[in-house]
Structures are given as C-alpha cells and as structure tokens.
Design goal:
102 residues; mainly alpha; 6 helices; flat
C-alpha cells in the first residue's frame, strides 16, 4: 500500500507522481510528460472553497477544527507509527491552515 499526503502532492506534484509510477511498477514518465500532467488545470472542492467569491463562508470553525484534531490525534499517531513517518501526524498542517508558519 502506498500512502500519500495531499499536501505533498500540492508541494511537489511531479515527485509524487514519480513515486506513484515507481510503486505501480510502471515505466518512468519523461520530465516533459510530467510537466504536461502537473500543469493541467485542476477543478476540485479545494479550489472552490478558496475562490475569492466565496469569502469565508466555507472556512471551518476553529472549534470544529480543534474537536476533529483531538478526535483524530490517536489515530494519526498510530498511523505515523505504523508507517514510520511523522508527517502523518499532520502537526504542520494545522499551523498553516490557521495562517501561521512553523
């Protein structure tokens, strides 16, 4: 099983795609083809939620985020431990979503 974080895909889409191709034991894709793939326009829920026309009406309430963070913390800890990868604790993501930088 290959576990990927959407944050990694956003930060380094070509690198993540290379990992997926390698994991699936597919022939490597040229840099040119990877550039074509990652340059395509993507339409998804996140782009809708971050559309300036929507303002703040789709932002999560801080109390809801805190509740979900507390609820999922033990599950995230177990996942990170099983995978041997602390990035799956998602500690860095919570600061970014609040507009803070670590």
């Amino acid at each position: 099983i290959l576990f990927l974080k959407s944050e990694d895909l956003k930060e380094d889409p070509a690198g993540v795609l290379r990992r997926v191709y390698k994991f699936l034991e597919l022939s490597p894709v040229s840099d040119e083809k990877l550039l074509q793939i990652v340059s395509r326009r993507h339409i998804n829920e996140q782009s809708f939620l971050h559309n300036a026309d929507n303002g703040d009406k789709f932002k999560m309430l801080p109390s809801t985020r805190d509740l979900l963070t507390k609820f999922y913390k033990p599950f995230n800890q177990k996942l990170a431990q099983l995978l041997g990868d602390d990035r799956f604790l998602w500690d860095d993501v919570h600061h970014i979503e609040r507009g803070e930088r670590t």
